[in-house]
Amino acid sequence: MLDDFFIRALLAGLGLALVAGPLGSFVVWRRMAYFGDSTAHAAILGVALSLAFNLSIYAGTLLVALVMAVVVTALVSRGQAMDTVLGVLAHSALAFGLVAISFVPSARADLNSYLFGDILTVGMADLTLIWIGALLVLGVLMWRWQNLLTATLNEELAMAAGINPRFERLLLSIALAVVVALSIRVIGSLLISAMLIVPAAAARALAPTPERMAANASLIAGLSVMLGLLSSLHLDTPAGPSIVAVAAIFFGISFVFRRG
Amino acid sequence: MPHLRQGGGDMTPLIQANDLTILRPGSQDIVLQNVDFQIAPQEIVTVVGPNGSGKSSLVRALLGHMALADGRISRRPDLRIGYVPQRVQIDTAIPMTVRRFLSLPRRVSDEMASAVLARTGVDGLQARQLTQLSGGQFQRVLLARALLHDPNLLVLDEPTQGLDQPGIVAFYKLVEEVRRETGAAVLMVSHDLLVVMRASDRVICLNGHVCCEGTPQHVSSAPEYRALFARVAKMRWRYISTTTITITIMAMTTSTIITTTTAKAMHFHAG
After folding, report:
1. ipTM over 0.90
2. What pLDDT sits at residue B190?
């Protein structure tokens, strides 16, 4: 069954959807949308480095995404004007990545697959790595859930309970970098943050508690993966963008039910 | 020392701070200099002072959230603090019911949640979203959360911000009730000078250092206090003159009931 490219694509997408729900919810709650973008765009630079130095794509993107996540977290803690700084970082990372990749002849042909993902060519090794990574990040989020949530809600209340908000923030940044690295083959650098934010934003409408929002976000992301891949198969549309497009339609529908 | 409400018990101060000096984070500006502070079990202490006088810095230092440039703080080993921070704003992006909020970060049973909500008069709101509560309801939910886990010190930093005058009076009355029922000491930072001072055993007037300290009567007639607030009072006072205020305070210290009307006249917003 796993020989089928479509099944592998589906499983890879569902693995990411599972972790995208809760992690994406934190991105929405903490208003880190642009943060996701800058980390994801930096990943292209990681691809260029990996190809130039013959590294695994995952190792290269993880490294660059981690550096970016830590730099941005440090800037946030210092209270810089966030939207400008992040805008500069996100787009310069993308620009440098694209320039760097143009020096690697073998990568030029594949550029599209790194920008928009190529879920239909996911192999067994990719699939294994994606699921191990996704379960690992999910495990960390569940382990720290109460602390992460308190620190997200109010830092003073968190500190009074002995929680270090900076540590929790750093943990989320690292989780984000890991998920960005895992997603680059599947959904591509340009649409990773969409995969995190859109399902979570759609899930906000009907959720009374954070846990329900995170679970609903995973569900919506999973349905988007399934319907997006089916449409890609039958209508011959690009897979990654189809998945995000389905999630966006869910978001539109959620407006009808919006409350609070 | 305040008068004892209950006999016996360990009357060692819950927190004792000596000679505190605090700098503004990331600079050499002195926020507080040579401040001594202590609070005894069951005591209600109010810190008053103009904006930027270091009130919140003092509280944050006592909680251990702020580094000291000098001085030391000792906390009793059995100290359990219930804390209501200044200006808590819940982002509408986070769905959060009152019930779920009480279980952060430590999970509590439905019975415990219901008990603390009942004590602050908001039982039944468990399923409501935090962002849909009125200002008064939200402050009572915050106070209820602070009462979980049996605190022996409540720290309330400007707990009545955003409330109207009747709401403010009702809130301080509630704080007094809670102190009476639980025996917890209360440390408050406030702008609502006159109303809050009435409910206090001891008032500390702060302006970078301790200007004056003592019973509400003592502080309100102290020249340092009056010098500090006279200018503000002239600008802000809408209802009665400063002379009348002083007389009113004197009269108020013996009475225990204030009507909403008096409270309205007495509310003093130095902000």
Report:
1. no
2. 84
